[in-house]
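So, could you explain the following?
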Amino acid sequence: MGPVITTVIRVRFGETDKMGIVYNANYLTWFEIGRTEFCRALSVPYTEWEEQGVFLPVVEAHIRYKSPLKYDERALIETRIMEVTSHSVSYSYRVKPEERSRLAAEGWTRHAFCGPEGRLLREPEPFYSWLKEQTRSSLEEVVLREH
C-alpha cells in the first residue's frame, strides 16, 4: 500500500459555516495540503515537479462526509497514493479529529500528468518511477507534520 503521511491542521474560524462546523468545500483544500505534504515529506516537493515541466491538475474528486469538525479542533489528514497509471496518479485521504476517534471525512483525488501547455504526458520520469515505487513500498511509515 505504501507510506501514509499524516499532516496536522487546526480548524480556523473562516473554514466554518454559520452552524460552526467546517464548510464542505474546505476538505478539498485540506486534501491539497495533505498531498503537498506527502510529496514534501518523501523528498519530492511539487515545486520540483513543476520545475521539470510536470503538472498535476485535479481531474476527478470524491468526498464522503462522516462526522463534522468544529472551529479550533485539531485534525489529522492521512494521505497515501492509491493508484498510479500511465497518465495519472490518485491519492486517498482520511480526515480525523485528533481528540476523537470518529472519522470526519474520507475521499480521493485523481490527477493527470500534464506538461506546462496542458497536454497529457505518459509516464513522466523521474516522477512516474518514484510514484510506482511508493505504491510498492511495504513501509507503513507515518510522519506527523504540523501545518
About this structure: The beta strands are 4-10, 58-65, 74-84, 88-97, 105-112, 142-146. The first helix runs from residue 26 to 41.
